[in-house]
Amino acid sequence: MRIGVLTGGGDCPGLNAVIRGVVARAERLGHQSVGILHGWDGLLENKTRELGRDDVRGILQRGGTILGTSRRDPYAHANGWESVRSTLETNRLNALVVIGGDGTLRSALKLSVEGDFPIVGVPKTIDNDIAATDRTFGFDTAVQIATDAIDRLSTTAESHDRIMVVEVMGRTKGWIALYAGLASGADEILIPEVPYDLDRISREIERRHADGHTYSMIVVAEGIEPPPGSSIELPLDAFGFPRLGGVGYTIASELERRTGFEARVNVLGYLQRGGTPTATDRILATRFGIAAADAIHDGHYGTMVALRGNDIKLVSLDEATAEVRGVPRALYDDAGTFFG
Ligand code: F6P
């Protein structure tokens, strides 16, 4: 078989480990892998390159994706369908491994169902919000980076008696904020799943400072609603998702106004997606890649590889893209034990 491999949507630490897993396993099983360059763009514009075992040596620990990626919905383009078809035929591709998040996997589902093309999906996102899998690779790395950053910001905050607001990624879900906040002992964690109360948080900050604590660390997920009275202009991306970022500034200025303590903001942004994946993410991504190649070999199309407990399972792409998964309230309440 000739198996296309595509990475779509935002990049994520561990993508190269998946590509390496797919290509190495496919070769062992007697198949040829073909890399699709720059996500769906490569299928729209016929940009591909054959990949053998030697092409994927030394990439396990590299961040980003050797194939490139893009945020493009192929079906939002004129003749998108025909262009994708034509590239699949020109390259004599029999199946595709699509490595992506919510938007990319939904396009993959369309191609699988409406285009009747053999596809296996691999869930990718630092946000950890794909419902059908217990974990996505990239999440562990993003949490570690955010935790390291918060640890560092604590020492500068305490020297100045400041409120430090750290904004982390995660889109509409608060996984990164919750995990990084828990791991770093944050004084408050604000996530989109749970409404926040700035009056209560301000009182806690005042009490902390009155008790002699020299700073307050507030971790904010980028997807929370801004406080009443403030708003942020958010442009939309190709899949119609708002491009988030900056809500931490509105929280910081409200807290400064209410408490009188100086506040500073750090938006960690793309730092959370860059650089080498953690060992945990390398292993999960490698297992996903191997399982995806096996699924293609065995003819289990229209599926996505998923982590369930410690096992890799196949779930339907349909189920995988049906909903996104938020932080359970009980887990947030556990974190609340340490607030204030
Ligand atoms: O979905 C992953 C993610 O990093 C989100 O956490 C973030 O909101 C978004 O992608 C940023 O997207 P872009 O790369 O298009 O700026």
UniProtKB/TrEMBL annotation:
Alphabetically sorted, this entry's keywords are: Cytoplasm, Glycolysis, Kinase, Magnesium, Metal-binding, Transferase
Note the InterPro entries from the entry: ATP_PFK, ATP_PFK_prok-type, Phosphofructokinase_dom, Phosphofructokinase_III, PKF_sf
Q: Name one GO cellular component term.
A: 6-phosphofructokinase complex
User: Which Pfam families does the entry mention?
Assistant: PFK
Task: List residues of the Phosphofructokinase domain.
Answer: 2-296
Cofactor(s), names only, from the UniProt record:
Mg(2+)
Location(s) in or outside the cell: Cytoplasm
Q: Which GO molecular function annotation, any one, does this entry have?
A: metal ion binding
Q: Indicate the principal place this protein occupies in or around the cell.
A: cytoplasm
Q: Please indicate if the UniProt record lists Metal-binding as a keyword.
A: yes
E.C. number: 2.7.1.11
Enzyme class comes to transferase
Q: In which pathway does it act?
A: Carbohydrate degradation; glycolysis; D-glyceraldehyde 3-phosphate and glycerone phosphate from D-glucose: step 3/4
Q: Name one GO biological process term.
A: canonical glycolysis
**Designated name of the protein:** 6-phosphofructokinase
